[in-house]
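User: Teach me something about this protein's shape.
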Amino acid sequence: MNRRFIWCMLLKINVDDINRRVILHDLVRNADKTLVKQVNCDVDRCNSPNNAFKIKLKHLIISVFSYRKEHFSYIQGIHEIGRVFLTLFHEHKQNILDIKKSIFKLTQFSDNNEIIALSKALKMKLSTGKGRMDICFKAFDKFLIAYSTPYIYKHDCLTEINIESTLSKIASDVLHLLNHDSPTLHNFFINLKEKNESESKICMFILPWIITYFSHNVSRTSDKLIYYIFDHVISNNPLLIIFLVKEILIQCQWELFDFLEKYFGSETHGSSEHEMYPFVHLYFQNLDISSLKWDVIIDNSQKSLLNSRISKLNSYDLWNIDNKCTQNFKVNLIFRIRASQNTMIYYTLIFTIFSIAISFIVNEFGFSKVIRNEYS
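Assistant: First, the predicted structure itself:
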């Protein structure tokens, strides 16, 4: 199905959201000058297809944070997520056939009139450049609320967000999960940490991963991969990011140790040398995320997420978002697809049995006729 439709549905965009008028130009024009300066600086440094794309990306980010200025504060890296949404939603060429197929499938697998109405409304919006930008704004806004709150939310008008506290909670959970799945790697990171030092100090390298959901680290030419990652992020609990980080560390474990042995020899394993951390940071900073086995990472992460008591994680309270509707839609759609498939299997089985019975009767009748002719 068309990815833009699925993302909108999983992000709980409804018909009212689509019809709600938001004048992006006014939001950009009235935005805080500090916000504009910071966004312009970040976007100008990023690798974009052309200047026109950069201008649209700036307007997208500035408009969202101007719209949410009372609660959200922009931080460096969020523009990478904006780039992902803009690349997907603001395509100049629209595959009408894919959209028609999407609506047809939804009509088949769902009797929910609201979902069908949403699909038709999205089709109308996505048919124009202005409409695509409007939907991109709303989808990006919904994503930030659901998945980026720990990094951009201001607890009150006077207090800025505390990234170090957020990172410390996430890092402690990653180490906790590693202790279960890879004690060797867990002990390695613990030995890097000085006494009474926060876990965030030894896990600073994961900060770009969790803030940008890996969009900063994936090559600009690997849009399919980043879409694939976002597909699973959007359709899962926000805590999935912690399990993804854990699986990446496990997959890179032995390559990391080999890298460190070049500088520290056999003392790599179990070493308590705190000078080793800069090399650990260097390794992960230069890690080619695109070269990893992402199907394994995502599969293991989802299994681990389902089998973990997430309410016990330190990061559990960071995402104060109710994802039941997202999960319900996903489960409901899958259930209906499976139910439809089961119905088809049932009728196919009945038809097969009926055909065999008819064939048996015909063959038996024909065989009897041959016997009678033979002995008559």
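Now, about its shape. The longest helix spans residues 324-375. The CA atoms of residues 154 and 161 lie 5 Å apart. If you'd like, I can walk through any region in more detail.
User: That's plenty for now, thanks!
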